[in-house]
Amino acid sequence: MCIGQIHRIYGQECPSTQELQNSLRQAQKLLASHEASYLQSLRSLKRKISQLQNSTARVAAKASDASCPKLEAPLNGRKLGKVLLPGHEVHFLCDSGYELVGSETRQCKESLTWSGQQPVCKEINECASSPCANGGSCTDEVNGFTCACARGWAGPTCQSPTPTFFATTTNISAATSGAAAATSFPLTTLLPFVQPSKCSQVQGTTHCTCEAGYTISGRDTSTCTDIDECEVFHNGPAGRLCVHACINTPGGYRCSCPAGYDVSRDGRGCRDIDECATRQNNCTRDRLCINTYGGFQCVKVECPRIRNVTYVKTSPTRCERNPCPVDNKACSQAPNSVSYHHMSVVSNLSAPRVMFRVSTVRMIGDTLRFAVLGSRGRRHFSVQRSDRQTGELLLLTPLQGPDTLEVEVEMSELEKRALIGRYITKITIFVSQYEF
Ligand SMILES: [Ca+2]
Ligand SMILES: [Ca+2]
Known about the structure:
Immunoglobulin-like, 7 helices, 36% strand, 20% helix, Complement Module, domain 1, single chain, Laminin, 3 domains, binds calcium ion, three-stranded antiparallel sheet, six-stranded mixed sheet, disordered N terminus, alpha+beta
């Protein structure tokens, strides 16, 4: 009505309702974009103020010579870093043969206390992986172990039969069974998968028995042959004997795992070695160590490089766009933030399943939209909404390893249908070679 009056004063015709609506819509759009850029500036101002606060707090702490209490190196370990001022870190290492339990790094906080827990160096139990073969018993030692081998076995892990084995067993055989004497078996076949049986005469009948893990094969009751458990129990009622590989041994068997895995406590499975937690990696300081099943990856997170747009790293895995100059459309359409996530999965993971969730804590606009970017990503993934502020990345088909996949999830924020922000999450998925 007001605009109509103004037009009448100037002696012009009143604009149509359509024209009025158009002007109002444009004004609204303009306001929304102003609002977004205003909020953006406020956020960056807030961040800068908090940075300033932190640095002045540090200066103040330095000025008053306030420092955290002195830290001791753990027994059988070392401490790196001498500065005890707020913001500084102290690192701990253990001597070889020991593993660190507690915090590897502690930081002096503004409150002049240390983050984390005082670590201790615990002796590694080398016997945990049952390294002694053929019934040998293991004794744990600092930085090693010793095996007490069962009779007939020798070597650091009791892996080799003793040379006297043949002579000893034939003697026993001759003494116990009497009749069976030392028949001339070739030495190579006798050792160590074939043993003489133990026979006794009961009421005129000969009974022969074998040691555990051996059986009498065929008609010849005087010899015991090793049971090849890997062959016989390959697929038992409780599943496979070994998750990975089975090695038949005289009188028994053992499971083995590929490089990068330890045999699990039950002796059947394979447990990934966490190279990132145990410092068995060679990642340089500027890279992140990502533990994967069967290995690890050294990952370098680099902010996007877009013309006329600059990003700043706000955390080791996040880049945020610096405020854009006014009227730079290319800049304002570039992602406001890019986050990097790394996941490790085993091969052939069942699908469908939710792999990752993307959400926002604070929403400025009225609508959020989620999408998967890139053609390779779309083949395996889709995105679905779990609530108003959360999108879920859904795995559609099982991933066969070994493989590395990258998928980008875009979250767009809209206000009255106008785009006010784009947030990208780049997810790298390391798929292992095996299903463990
Ligand atoms: Ca065997
Ligand atoms: Ca690993």
